[in-house]
Amino acid sequence: MSTPAQISANQKNAQKSTGPRSAMGKDSSRFNALKHGIDARSLVIPGEDPAELAALAENYYRQCQPDGPIEAHLVDVLIRSDWQGRRYDRVEAQLINQSVDPTVSPDAGLTLLFADVAKNHPLQHLFRRRQAAQRDWFQAFRELQRLQKARQQSEPAAEEENVAGEIPEIGFDLSKTPIIVRPAMAEPVPAPKIAS
């Protein structure tokens, strides 16, 4: 636990901090706390179109038609994974454009770049993130399909229960009972004799 003297010193030091002063510093520092995944406040970052994300979400909801919060959550995972995958594609193109040496031929530049990826290059991290987004998408898609299939299979059973509920509680529904007709016997059968 901090002592009162430490707390006072921390408060005085905090007053000296003014944060970034230049416009460029302010622009870059405003995303210092940007989170991804479950901690993200927004899926849209500068340079991305919120209307494009809204259209993507609308298409997913229209196609998947989630029923209940679990299916809706899985659709949200599909949307987030798809959106991040699209972002990673743009970032990859930008990283490659910035990393390729313009003094060499394009093919040689790409070869050198991908040879450098093995040495902790930003592309290596990007590839892992893209693979994680794809994995999340496919897992959510499989689970959503499983839940929707189970729901669709249980709906006919629920409909049958409703139909069964229409039959009177007491008695029989004779309209659904088959009538069995037996041919008449030609000769009466004698009663068995009992030995005494």
Helix and strand layout, with pairings?
Layout: H1 4-16, H2 23-29, H3 50-64, H4 69-99, H5 106-116, H6 122-164
Helix pairs in contact: 3-4, 4-6
Structural notes for this entry:
- With 196 residues, this protein is mainly alpha-helical.
- It contains 6 helices and no strands.
- It has helices spanning 4-16, 23-29, 50-64, 69-99, 106-116, 122-164.
- The longest helix is centred in the C-terminal third of the chain and has 43 residues, at 122-164.
- The protein starts with a helix and ends in a 32-residue tail after the last helix.
- The model is unreliable at 33-41 (pLDDT under 50).
The helical percent reads 55-70%
pLDDT < 50 runs, ≥5 residues: 33-41
Alpha-carbon distance between the two ends: 109 Å
Radius of gyration: 35 Å
Average pLDDT, rounded to a whole number, is: 75
Which percent range describes the beta-strand content? under 5%
SSE arrangement, N to C: HHHHHH
Q: Total strand count, please?
A: 0
- Biggest beta sheet summary: none
Shape category: extended
Structural class: mainly alpha
